[in-house]
Specification:
Layout lengths: L9 E5 L4 H12 L3 E6 L2 H13 L3 E6 L5 H9 L7 E4 L14 H28 L5 E5 L13 H16 L1 H5 L4 E7 L27 H8 L1 H4 L6 E4 L3 H4 L3
Parallel strand pairs: 1-2, 1-4, 2-3, 4-5, 5-6, 6-7
Helix pairs in contact: 3-4, 4-5
The structure holds NADP nicotinamide-adenine-dinucleotide phosphate.
NADP nicotinamide-adenine-dinucleotide phosphate binds next to helix 1.
Length: 246
């Protein structure tokens, strides 16, 4: 028995045009899911969809700006298909030093990282509820949301703390409809958002690749692997939260 088999499942991944989201789409497709790859850059999404299809998987692209609730509602509802798995991965990190005028940047980070997660979750959970789907929602938080703080990143840290808490706080409402909601809190992973990091400051001694999240993702995505797991946050950080020095 393969408890990570996602055949007959459909997975929506936001922020799929780059980095972690790109990898999540490849992994979910390789596990058998039909993948809906969502982001603003459709050219990148189409590139991803082609490569998934070439590898024998199933995927489609969806132009989506998670900051726009009307668009989120229209685009996701307009898919007219069941969604079993939703990965809320779209996110931005912009410095917001407190002694500079940063109101716009602070608002942008919150709009994408917090309101974006809330909008997509609201629409997707509504579909799961209406269609009686035992769904799995996975929010991509960060170690900056709880145990690790970064100078000049107050908006990003606060936004990820909100994502982690939003995950836990929705357990009661969603469990009534057999929808699970969990989070992954990555540490430093090599992507366009985190292109470099001194590996001497990572206890395990190396900077992670996006594929280092494959196991956590598949575990939380699959009802066969994690049907009793909801409201959890899996930290995948090479020990940075506990032993790293910046
Ligand atoms: N890399 C790390 O070390 C790390 C660590 C902890 C947490 N994370 C989290 O992991 C997630 C992915 O990060 P990454 O490293 O893969 O970053 P990335 O390579 O910069 O990718 C970010 C993705 O988010 C999408 N996005 C941004 N704003 C959006 C919007 N308004 N609507 C829809 N999509 C939007 C981007 O696509 P478009 O520009 O095409 O829309 C892109 O696909 C983020 O939530 C990040 O905070 C990353």
């Amino acid at each position: 028995m393969n408890i990570f088999d996602l055949s007959d499942k459909t997975a929506l991944v936001t922020g799929a045009s780059s980095g972690l989201g790109w990898r999540f789409c490849e992994v979910l497709a390789a596990a058998g899911a039909h993948v809906i790859a969502a982001a603003r850059r459709v050219d990148k999404l189409n590139e991803l969809v082609s490569s998934i299809k070439q590898a024998g998987g199933s995927a489609e692209s969806l132009k989506l700006d998670v900051r726009n609730f009307e668009q989120v509602k229209k685009q996701i509802s307009g898919l007219n298909q069941h969604i079993d798995i939703c990965i809320n991965n779209a996110g931005i990190a912009i410095d917001t030093p407190i002694f500079e005028d940063n109101q716009n940047n602070f608002e942008s980070v919150m709009q994408t990282n917090v309101l974006g997660v809330w909008y997509v979750t609201q629409v997707v959970a509504g579909i799961m509820k209406d269609q009686k789907i035992d769904g799995s929602i996975i929010n991509i938080s960060s170690i900056y949301g709880h145990s690790r703080l970064e100078e000049k990143q107050s908006a990003y840290c606060a936004s990820k703390a909100a994502v982690s808490q939003l995950t836990k706080s929705l357990v009661g409402e969603l469990s009534k409809f057999s929808i699970r909601i969990n989070a992954i809190a990555p540490g430093a992973i090599l992507t366009p958002m985190t292109p470099k990091w001194d590996h001497n400051n990572i206890p395990v001694g190396f900077l992670a690749e996006p594929s280092d999240l494959d196991g956590a993702l598949l575990f939380l995505a699959s009802n066969k692997a994690s049907r009793y797991v909801t409201g959890s946050c899996i930290t995948v950080d090479g020990g940075i939260s506990w032993g790293g020095i910046e």
